[in-house]
Known about the structure:
globular, 8 strands, alpha/beta, five-stranded parallel beta sheet, three-stranded parallel beta sheet, about 250 residues, single chain, binds zinc ion, TIM Barrel
Amino acid sequence: MFFVLRKKDLIVFLCGILFIGLSWSTFHIAAHPNMESWLKEKIVISQFPTDKKIVVLTYDDGPDPRFTPLVLDILKKHHAHASFFILGKRAENHPEIVKRISKEGHEIANHSYSHADFNRINKAAMLQEIQTTNRIIHFITGKKPLWFRPPGGFLSYQLVEICRKENLTIAYWTYQQDSKDWRPGVGAQQIANHIIKRIKPGQIIILHDGAPNGMQTAQATDILLDDLEKQSYRCVTMSELMALANKE
Ligand SMILES: [Zn+2]
């Protein structure tokens, strides 16, 4: 050896390796090892291929009587449409909000019945969470949902198989567009800035109207839509953007 590693250097070096390792594994846990082939097959969608200035705003975990109506008022003010990934259990308690979402031209999609941890439940329970919510949405709106978003973004081979059989496409979100708006203490301006800084055509932006921080999410929507209008961006539903992207 022509050089001597000092103890301090060695610790810095090992911490570096550990950090890279952890970041890599976190990314892979979030994305699942088979993610790439599911994206190719288009059973999972995380972004739409388009050059047009169009994006999708998605709202998870509602309907929530405190925040969903606010988000709907703001979308209406800006003539924007969005996709709402709702929970079956909450939809049963607030069918009037679900009806309003649908009536105002937004899309309603399935986000499971109880926000169960899909990492811990078996295939039969997954199927029940998904089918029950599909039935509730159909009963309230007369429409069958086309999209499913797994709680926490958890993907598995079993889940993908169920979605294929149920004719649901898995709506992921664009990796860069997760502002963590649901975290208590995250402010509206901070959420909007995160999204505006990274905005690109075809992105799927994840937000939460059903989390305790929903007031900030609603206000962030107003700030965000003001800015997107200035940049001539349009917000449409998942299905609308898919139809547009397929035409290109
Ligand atoms: Zn959720």
